[in-house]
UniProtKB/TrEMBL annotation:
InterPro entries referenced in this protein's UniProt entry, alphabetically: Aminotrans_V_dom, Aminotrans_V_PyrdxlP_BS, Cysteine_dSase, PyrdxlP-dep_Trfase, PyrdxlP-dep_Trfase_major, PyrdxlP-dep_Trfase_small
Taxonomic lineage of the native organism: Bacteria, Pseudomonadati, Pseudomonadota, Betaproteobacteria, Burkholderiales
Recorded catalytic activity of this chain's protein: (sulfur carrier)-H + L-cysteine = (sulfur carrier)-SH + L-alanine
Cofactor(s) recorded in Swiss-Prot or TrEMBL: pyridoxal 5'-phosphate
Enzyme class: transferase
This protein's encoding gene: nifS
Family note: Belongs to the class-V pyridoxal-phosphate-dependent aminotransferase family. NifS/IscS subfamily.
Every Aminotransferase class V domain range: 2-362
Name of this chain's protein: cysteine desulfurase
SUPFAM superfamilies: PLP-dependent transferases
Organism field: Paraburkholderia dioscoreae
Length: 381
């Protein structure tokens, strides 16, 4: 199987599996217990926390473990909003946040919380004029993804940070797709809170984190004594150890990004040469190196994915959490892409396990399979 769905999840690295097995086998005590087994677990937790903090350039005390990025996103928005000074009640999202995060936005709106969404341009990049118009003195929190999970477009985080802080608002960034794929430094970012998830960088599922800058007040959403009283619940130590191992093994992120970017560009160029009907969404915008969101004329995404599956290639029609439905992507809708074109969108996301041979195989075998379908008049627009 050729795996081209790295934006959905990534295969756990062998070092990650080994780190988790070691904890499950030998360090299974509760870190809150005072006996020897508990103190052994407490030490392992502290060591993993230190490793993760070092790789992300944050302080260990700034790191709050969660069950994943979705929980971290909820904790950031709800926790920062609850801690906002009197008179700051509005929350600002972008229109292209992850589908799960926009469900939170709708839930907040249903509770009567004032909410606005920053528009995007037709290429998927954030409309900074829209951002400037919406971020005012009544805003408590601005929540923005660092890079879009469908198009791969990298958002202008620094510019939005400056707008938010000039207005006295907190900035939360969902860096789920960004960390591990492009260089990241929390200390230098100036961001108030950052979400991430281990399974996007060859770690385990079920573990993520929220980085909360020292001095920023966050109201807990799950009460308890763990995580400095910011997130209750016994720590998932095996997953945390796997998380640490995943981050520790990343190596030269910039060099790997360049390698993957070259493969992505070769894939897109080869497909366009073989099939002139191919259109790449957000091709002119700054993108994550491994993300290619494209359509093959007007061939429905499910048809293309079926043919890919027959070739032994795993891909998706967009966000893995929302694909499979008959509605067009909310991201492409926000980009003002016509419905028939949006329903043809397929996402190929490359990663660490992708090789040049994988790309060569796809370029050799996919165009001959799709060409007869594209020659049908209704599918070649």
């Amino acid at each position: 199987m050729i795996y081209l769905d790295h934006n959905a999840t990534t295969p756990p690295a062998p070092a990650v599996v080994q780190a988790m097995l070691s904890i499950l086998t030998d360090v299974w005590g509760n870190p809150s217990s005072q006996h020897a087994l508990g103190q052994q677990a407490k030490g392992a937790l502290a060591a993993a926390r230190a490793t993760i903090a070092r790789t992300l350039a944050c302080k260990p005390a700034e790191l709050v473990f969660t069950s994943g990025a979705t929980e971290a996103n909820h904790l950031a928005v709800c926790g920062l909003h609850a801690a906002a000074p009197h008179g700051r009640h509005r929350v600002v999202f972008s229109a292209v946040e992850h589908a799960g995060h926009l469900k939170l936005a709708r839930a907040l709106a249903a509770r009567g919380i004032a909410l606005d969404c920053i528009a995007v341009r037709p290429d998927g990049s954030l409309d900074l004029d829209s951002a400037a118009a919406l971020i005012g003195p009544d805003v408590a929190v601005v929540s923005l993804m660092a890079a879009n999970n469908e198009t791969g477009v990298v958002m202008p985080v620094a510019e939005v940070r400056d707008l938010a802080h000039a207005a006295g608002a907190r900035l939360h960034v969902d860096a789920t797709q960004f960390i591990g794929r492009l260089p990241f430094d929390f200390a230098l970012s100036g961001i108030d809170a950052v979400s991430l998830s281990a399974h996007k960088l060859r770690g385990p599922k079920g573990i993520g984190a929220l980085l909360v800058r020292q001095g920023v007040t966050l109201m807990p959403q799950v009460h308890g004594s763990q995580e400095r009283h910011r997130r209750g619940g016994t720590e998932n130590l095996p997953a945390i150890a796997g998380f640490a191992a995943a981050l520790e093994r990343l190596g030269d992120v910039a060099s790997e990004a360049a390698r993957i970017g070259m493969l992505r560009d070769a894939l897109e160029q080869g497909l366009k040469r073989a099939l002139p009907e191919v259109h790449v969404f957000s091709a002119q915008a700054a993108r994550l190196p491994g993300t290619s969101y494209l359509r093959f004329g007007l061939l429905p995404a499910e048809v293309v994915l079926q043919r890919l599956g027959r070739l032994g290639v795993a891909a998706s029609s967009g966000s893995a959490c929302s694909s499979g439905g008959s509605e067009p992507s909310h991201v492409l809708t926000a980009m003002r892409v016509p419905r028939d074109e949006a329903l043809a969108a397929v996402r190929l996301s490359l990663g660490e396990t992708t090789t040049a041979q994988d790309i060569q195989y796809l370029l050799a075998h996919l165009p001959p399979v799709l060409r007869p379908l594209l020659e049908q008049p209704a599918c070649s627009a």
